[in-house]
Known about the structure:
- The protein has helices spanning about 20-35, 60-75, 90-95, 110-120, 165-170, 180-190, 225-235, 255-260, 280-290, 295-305, 325-340, 365-390, and strands spanning about 10-15, 40, 50-55, 80-85, 100-105, 150-155, 155, 175, 195-200, 215-220, 220-225, 240-245, 260-265, 265, 270-275, 310-320, 345-350, 395-405, 405-410, 425, 440-445, 450-460.
- By secondary structure, it is α/β, with parallel strands linked by helices.
- A five-stranded parallel beta sheet has the order 2-1-3-4-5, sandwiched between helices.
Amino acid sequence: MPATSPRPAGPRVGFVSLGCPKALVDSERILTQLRVEGYDIVPSYDDADVVVVNTCGFIDAAVDESLDAIGEALAENGKVIVTGCLGKREALIREAHPDVLSISGPQDYASVMSAVHAAAPTRHDPFVDLVPRRAAADDIGVKLTPKHYAYLKISEGCNHRCSFCIIPSMRGDLVSRPVDAVLREAEKLVRGGVRELLVVSQDTSAYGVDLRYAEREWRGRTYQTRMKALCEGLAELDAWTRLHYVYPYPHVDEILPLMAETRDGAPRLLPYLDIPFQHASPRILRLMKRPGAVERTLERIHRWRGICPGLTIRSTFIVGFPGETEAEFEALLDFLDEAQLDRVGAFAYSPVEGATANALPGPVDEAVKQERLARFMERQAAISAARLEAKVGSVQRCLVDAIDGELALARSQADAPEIDGLVQIQDGAAAGLRPGDFADVRILGSDEHDLYGEVEAGGAQAPFPIVNAG
């Protein structure tokens, strides 16, 4: 019988992380602080002295998932601390699960730690407790992503009041991190082996407005706390930088030249924009409290591609919004045809408790919403498939995420992790590729979501990405 491993000396915490990348960064901060304070993080309910569940509460499906996760943790362990976005709806959680130990909202790290201290206090060690512990914010800390990519959160909260969204009520108004703090964190991540930085926030375009674009020093140069200056700083690092949650302000235009610019053959900023356009009807956009100049949006898309022909645009849309007519939905399909977006996600409108859109007249029948969603996705699938097919025969620089048998599962510059497609490298294992390697891949085929190819001769394990051909 094999020897059993000794029981860890410190209290043991189980952790369940749900929701978006912003919530994932919150989880990483909590886990880092737990490790700093001597807690052991364990992968099972049975081994944990207490379980922390970081919840999501944006849409009904996320609420249900979070409540189910809390219930499972209670059933399997019995001692559960709840935090995250759903924590703002304490009464809802208490009604479903009255036995949870503590409930706190997003970014309330102090409350989480206090609850953990009460449920599973650390053991006093007279030889260690006198040694000053390093603050979690001083280091990279625990990461929940693979070693080669990381989410870089630049701000909390949002100043917009979109009628379908309750995030400001959960996460508050915009609070930006100073630009030097963000750039120092990014630099540490890259030094630690990160090859791709994924910039996340609720509104990346608004970065720094609350700080009045305050200037800070990094690497002997002055940077403003604003999106363009942040991108210029990140472009100095030897890593891919990918922008998410970019609200379509006019100043987004200013970063396109940086995406078109190369250094040693590599794009200084990945030519990739994640912009949630949400709809294409000016009236529906006004009801959503979103920008409504659709023709101007199309003009900008064409202009962006003129500046940076390799630009990838990802977006999200809502179909079946209250009052949406068949004609307005058809206008949305026409927008897809004209915009030719690379990656698109869509949702049928779902009333979220607290959203002002719930009070709008003309709710769309559920069957109609689902029928429109299916038509929308069918139209976009054809567009996405055609745009991917156009890459067959080109050479794409890819970042390897995993090895699966003979395949290397990788992503091109056009693919964000977990939400976009993959590049399946058929001879990846034979080429000796490993997670975190870059490789030039000759594209041999495609489908609606993914590309397929083989390593280009001499293109494996390159030290840093070059711009792709095609």
